[in-house]
Every structure is written in C-alpha cells, then in structure tokens.
Amino acid sequence: MLLSLNWLKDFVEIPRALSAEELGLKLTMHTVEIDSVEKQVDKYKDIVIGKILEIKAHPDADRLSLVKVDVGAMRASPLQIVCGAPNIKEGQLVPVALVGAILPNGVEIAEAEVRGVKSQGMLCAEDELNLGDDHSGILILENKAKIGQNLGKYLDLKDVVFEVENKSLTHRPDLWSHYGIAREIAAFTGNKFKEYKLNKKLFKGIDQVQLDIKVEDFDLCPRYMVIAIEGIKVEASPKWMQDRLIAVGMRPINNIVDITNYVMLELGQPLHAFDKNLVDKIIVRRAKDNEVMETLDGEKRKLDKEMLVIADSSKPIAIAGVMGGANSEISSETRSIIIESANFNFISIRKTQTKLGLRTESSIRFEKALDPNLAELAIARTVELVKKLCPKAKVISQLVDLPRVAGKAGEKKFELDQGPVKLDLAWLNKIVGQAIEKNQVIEILEKLGFKTSPQPSPSKGEGVNTVLEVTVPTWRATRDISISEDLVEEVSRIFGFSNLTPSMPRVAMETPEISQERMLEKKIKTILSSGAALSEVYNYSFVGEEQLEKLGIDYTKHIKLANPIASHQTMLRQSLVPNLVDNVKINQARFENISIFEIGSIYLSNLGELAKDDQGKDKLPYQEKRLGIIIAASKKENVFTKTKGIIDYLLTLLNLSVNFTPIEIIPNWADKEASAKIIVGNQPRHGRVKAGKYLGLVTKLDSSIARNLGIKKQVGIAEISLRELFNIIKDQGIKKFKEFAKFPPVVRDLAFVVNENILYNDIRDEIVNFNQLIKSVELFDVYQGGKLGLGKKNLAFHIIYQADKTMTAKEVDQLQQELIKHLQDKFEAKIRDF
Predict the structure, then answer these.
(1) Same domain, 271 and 179
(2) pTM: predicted TM-score of the whole model, two decimal places
(3) Of the candidates 104, 372, 380, 603, which lies 20 to 30 Å from 51 by C-alpha distance?
(4) Which residues of the chain have pLDDT under 70?
C-alpha cells in the first residue's frame, strides 16, 4: 500500500522538524512497517523533457520512425530514438526516458537495436509514466515545458510516498487508508487529529426518484447504502485529484471513477458508481451456478451460488466487493449515477476473489472486515466530492440504508462488540515491565479513538481508579480489539517500545523438580536391558474376554470400555501378564528364547462405597504402575529359577535384599508347584534381617494353560508393584560412605544335611541372627541325591565372622560349634562328613 505525505497532512499536522524518513521510522516503530520512503519526483529520475527535431522513416520498417530529440545539456548531441507512435510531429515537447532510466512500471531502459538501427532511449506514453490509461500515442507536453527539465519537476511533484508492508496491517482494516494512518500519527506525535465530520445535509435534495433496492442475504451484506445523483458531466478529474491518485499508484480514469477511488484511498471504504440509466433496480443476491458476467477488465467470469453479486432485474451488474460489471460502467454519456457504499462479509469476499483469481484494491480492503459504520461516512464524502467536481450535480433520491430505512428504526444487522474491556493499570505495568502514568494511558487510548471510564480498583494497596473500562471504537471492534492484552499492545506501541527500559526478568532460580519415581523407572530399564539382557516391550492397556478366559481370569470385575478400538480389546487390564503371554505366543516361532519386560499401568475398578468420593462423585479407576517380566525357553531349562535370578539381580543392584516365600493364593494360570511371593527389605545391617514387604510374585505358567493357549515353551513370569518398590527405596535414605573394617574378617565354611522341605531362607535367617559377630552368610552349593538318600539335601555356606578386634581361631571355633549345635536343635541338621 502506498501513502501520500500531502494527503496525510489533510488529517494531521506533521511537525516541520520531522523529516519524511524520520516519520517513516516512527510509523515502523509504532504502527506499520514502512518498506521505503520515496520522493515522488524521484520516480521520474532520468526521464526528461525533449524536443523533437527531425522525424525520418525507418529504413527497414514501415510503421517505425527515426526521431532526433534534443534533451538539452543532458547530452552533447541529439539522441536518435526509434518510435512507432503515430501522433509525433517535429517541434513537439515530449517525455524522454534516457538509457538507464527505470519507468514507474519497473521497466529499465537500455540502448537497443531496432531492425538494425540503434535507439538511444524511449519516448513515453501516458500509461508508461503511470499518468493515465492512454497508450494511443506519445504524451505531448505543453509549450511551457523546458528542454532538459526533469519530468517530475515539470509536473510539480512535491509529494513523498511511503510504501507500507501489507502483511504488517492484515489485522487492522482501519489502516488501509490515509485517514486511519493519520489517526495513528496523531497518537504517537501528540498532534491533533482532524476528524472528518459526517454532514447528513449532503444527502438532502429533490426526492424525485424512488430507488428499488432489495438485499436478499443480510449475512453476506450487513449494510447496503445507495443514493442517486443527476447533473453529472463525466470528464477528466482536476489536477490536484489526479496528482494524489498518481502518487499512490492509482491511474486517473474520469472524475466519477476517480472520486470513488479517491474516497477508498482516503477513508478505506470501497465504493462503486453505476450509470443510473443502465440499472432499473438493484438486488443484492447470491449468484446462480454457472451464471456469467463480464467485469470491467473485459473478462467474462463464471460465478457460483457461494458468491454475492449486485444485480438488476435480469442480470448481475457487479461482483460484490470485488469488481463492477461492464454492462453498467460509467462512460462519457453518463448523466446520472447511483453511488453504492456497502459492507460485505469478509469471508465471502475472500473466497470469491480466490475462486475467481481476481484480487482488487476493493476486495483487499473488504477481506479485512471493515467497520459497517464507515459506509455512511464514505458515501457522504463521495457526494461532497461529486458536487464539488460537478457543480450542477444534485441528489435526486433518498439515501437508502438497508436493513435500516431512513426515518425508521429498522432492524440493524451490524452490531459490534465494543466492550467495555477492563484494563487494570497495575497489571498493565506488570506486563509492560515499567510504570506508565494513568493519565498517559488514558491519553494514548483516547487519541486512538477509545473511550475510557476509570473505576475503583478491586484490589487493596493499588490505589483508586486504577481500572479502566475501555469502550472500543467501531473501526477496531470487527476483528481486532477484544481483550485486555490487546489494549496493553496499543498502549505499549504508542508509548514506544524503544522508551521501555530493558531489564532482565527477576525470576527465582530453583532446581528443577526431579521425579524420583521416573528416575527409578529409568534405572530399572537400564538394569534389565543391559545386565539382564531383556528386551523392553510396550502393549496396549486393553484386554479381551476370550483372552482372560483362557488364562482362567475372572473378567467380570474389569472396567469395560465405552468405545473399544477392537473387538478383542474391550476392557482395561488388571495385570501385565495376559498381554506379555500373548507376546510369547506371537514370537515363539521366531525365537528360541524370549526374555522381555514391560513397565505399564494397570486399572482396578472402585466398587461399592469406595467408588464415591467425599462429594458423592464417581472416583476414577485406581491406577498403578507395575513391572512385568517373562522368560520363555525350551522345556529343558528351569525358567522359574532363571526368573527368580533376574529378580534377585535387579533388587540387589537396587540395594535391596530379597526372599522368595511360599504363596497362599495362587492365580489360576500359575503352576502350583513353582510359585513364590517376592519379599523385599533394605539390605541387612550388622547381619540383622528385618521383616520384609510383599512386592509381587514370581511363578511359572501352568503347563495345561500353556497348551490351551498354544504355547510350546516353558514360561517364567514375575510381576512387581513399582509403587511398593518405590516406597521401599524411598525409605533407604541417603547412601553414605562407610569406612572399611579395621580388623580382618574370618571366613568359615559350613556344610550340613537337612530335610528337603526346610526352606533356605529359614536356615539363612537363623545363621545371620545367631550372633552379632556373624556379618554375612552366602550359600555356595546345594546338592541332592547320591549318598544323602531320599528326602534330604545338602546346603553349603560361607560364614563371615568379624569383630572390633582381631579374632583368634579359638574364638571362631567356639562360635562355629555353638552355631552347629543351634542348627542341630532347630532343624535336625547334621554336619556332612563324607
């Protein structure tokens, strides 16, 4: 978008001390990004006025001429230029683009050969200089022009043009005009904004014409305003209007079309003018599928029912908000016009222009969601300019304003949410990071068009009147300002981001919270996947009825899913075992041995009174993380012992002691002869073993269950509660270095025979607890059969004695004898002597 500095000065006084470049920088820092600041005269650099001295026919082209042009002191001798224009004559003054010049349309002039003849520049037509649409011949200048004079100086171009980066104002429909930008300049410079006052007297005239207007879809057209004017004389616009249009890249066409473009660029509201004699009535409706109309650019366009059109009784005469039709355009024969100023649904305009591949200055503005109230201001300005440029023009109809009708309190379709939005100034200062005085905040907001109403602060210690109730102006209420954060941005940018003192935020440095449970999980995964050589698996948390039935598990107490992902996964699991067993079944044909583990959640239902919380609401299912381990191997291997060994390995590395004790209640899928509870506690200190805690179970899959499932391997299974494990480890305390004993230990071996039904753990506990001088016990051999006889087993232990002195052999022998006698009395143990 291009902005004219002279045009901006119509609405705001810009200090003389503020250069155009400085103003461009301030606009960038406060409002929109300015891509460039260019003096208008610089657009015609290297384009000068020349005098045609001689015209000869081109030796090799009938329609081309060789023209000698005097460009004054710019060149020592006349230039030779090849030209095909039919209107040139000797003695004429014409614009000449020298070699190296860049035309307003971006074309760079270079020395060239045309049909074998060298051309040293170009004579320019009106459209090539962006001074109009005429391309029928070279632009002929008045005799007052001076040879060699820069064209910009000849045209008396004194304006400065700002190029705005359009993406920086996509959410600001009010800024697509000189009027809106001037309001911003007034806010950050502190100068007064010259508001355009609506003069409704402009609409009064001879009420001789009753306009037939109908809007069929107010959702797509919330407001539609038209008025008729006669006494029109279509001619060229005055120079002042042409100069402003040219400055911002708009080609002058004729006074009526130029007025609608002028008002659009000035106020931001697109308008359209119809030749009244070509329009019998106006209907704002949806287009019909495959309906075709020719637009002003001469293209025939196919429409569909999603597009909004302006139509007469038989045909569309404009694509709403995009482009008018060729069948109702203003021409030199036009004597009366209908001016349209409307508001269209921005989404509809966006879709229409995209489908048609037709993006215009009008549609660019409508797609931003314009303020419907702007339509009335723009039509008043248009009538004012029509009367100014056509002195005989007069209004001949009522101002039609749909859905509201003049003089009646009709339905209003464009109510906007103007708040109020509450803005706590203490909160604003906290967000900004700097104190901005209340009066300054109010001044900034009111200069931008907001209305403020101070209210007492609800919080104590903040002072009074620190909360503002801010009413949003209509031109910012369409898609822009709606919450207090938007107001913080408004205050900050006008106050000036560069005026904010940069400071580092004061944030208390704290050590990030560490989840000990997650750390334990990672440690367990590392131990099992590295040292124990197990592979980790991830299973769904769902199970099915058939799957549980084959394992002999009662599925009636499982939580059913409302929307299961599959027919065989209809419930939440209560154990990791079913899915791990399925892993073995699926993979047994591919692997000889399977060693896997999973850490996942199980879900237990809350039944009866336990299902309700203190407020009587349903509790969520109880969730608990568990560790599941499965070892599958050929029938020759003892998978139960191997699984126990992995559990012992894991818990030992976690600094825990483990005991495997008989289990009272055995799952239906477990082998009754190979099942044990996992009991753990902290590692014993000074040889004393304390009562442990139940952690889970280790077992073997029952052979009949395995056959029923189609599993051909032995399967060892363990399932551990990670919550219980974490609670045990949590109580361990911090590890501290313990000095090595000053005196050497004494190791004695002890082997004896006992009944095979006596458990190792019971014997071990008796040995460790027998005397404080026994520091540790290690089982290193178990033997059955041979000379021992049936029902007997041999256990061999390393027993370590240690005291706060160097123990003598006699002292150790005596303790050993006392221990042997104790074991004989307790377990009928006999020392093995063979």
Answers:
(1) no
(2) 0.62
(3) 104
(4) 404-413, 456-465, 606-619, 682-691, 733-735, 834
